[in-house]
Design brief:
By secondary structure, the chain is of the alpha/beta class. It has a domain of about 170 residues: Rossmann fold (3-Layer(aba) Sandwich), CATH 3.40.50.720. A 7-stranded parallel sheet has the order 3-2-1-4-5-6-7, with helices on both faces. Helix 2 links the parallel strand 1 and strand 2.
């Protein structure tokens, strides 16, 4: 049998599985929904607004969707309790970076940032634990931008450093469910473009791969983490090789 024939006969890698995408109406979430659907998975989307959810569901071929703010602990609990059955994978892409020096910091916005990046993973983990099949995946998407200290990055740095430890701890507690983190830097999405409108665009600084990282790159890695049963408790960097540059570069 030729390689071409073998490839043609290969089944989609997520056939018969169910993937929940929290914040799946745009960017990384929507691209991941498309990707896992192409691999045979049934997709359940969560998004804040009904209009964007409906549009994303049509684009991705999602099985179902729910419109609510995932940082609302009560609504999140109701969502998981209302699922018709067990699921295989949950991916959370909620939240963006935070660029605010202390003197200008909006503390209400700062609390929401912490809710999205630290409290939401805990709430999702507790509610998803009883719904995920053994060996299934709980996958979070964070960032890398705060690893190097800088003015306006204090809050982002705290979250960037804290999330890998949180994920490793959850992997121990929730086993045999697998828990992982993708740390993606400056992904080329409309959200990052709006946040960087008045700043030099780090998405164009591609020291090692020669291009910006796109949502499809993150979606491909997310799908691989779901498929590979040996991966848990780990953080996977997707930063265009920026960590290889000397300090200050």
């Amino acid at each position: 049998m030729t390689t071409a024939t073998t490839t043609a006969l290969a089944e989609p890698e997520l056939l018969g599985q169910t993937v929940v995408v929290i914040d799946g109406s745009a960017g990384i979430g929507l691209e991941t929904a498309r990707r896992v659907r192409a691999e045979g998975a049934d997709v359940i989307l969560v998004a804040r607004t009904p209009e964007r959810l409906e549009h994303a569901a049509r684009e991705s071929g999602a099985l179902a969707g729910a419109a609510f703010d995932a940082t609302d602990a009560g609504q999140l609990e109701q969502f998981f309790e209302g699922l018709p059955g067990p699921v295989d994978h949950v991916i959370v892409t909620v939240g963006g970076p935070q660029y605010e020096p202390l003197a200008e910091m909006d503390f209400a916005r700062a609390r929401r940032f912490l809710d999205e990046h630290l409290m939401l993973p805990l709430h999702v983990a507790r509610n998803a634990a009883g719904r995920l099949r053994p060996g299934g995946t709980l996958l979070f998407v964070g960032g890398t931008g705060g690893r190097r200290p800088g003015i306006g990055l204090a809050l982002g740095s705290a979250v960037t450093v804290g999330l890998p430890s949180l994920v490793a701890g959850l992997a121990l507690e929730l086993a045999p469910v697998r828990v992982n983190l993708i740390a993606a830097a400056s992904v080329d999405t409309p959200l990052s473009a709006s946040l960087l409108a008045d700043q030099p665009d780090p998405r164009c600084t591609t020291p090692r791969i020669g291009r910006a990282v796109g949502p499809d790159d993150v979606a491909a890695l997310a799908t691989y983490v779901m498929v590979n049963p040996a991966l848990t408790g780990a953080t996977y960097d997707m930063d265009r090789g920026r960590q290889l540059l000397p300090a200050g570069a």
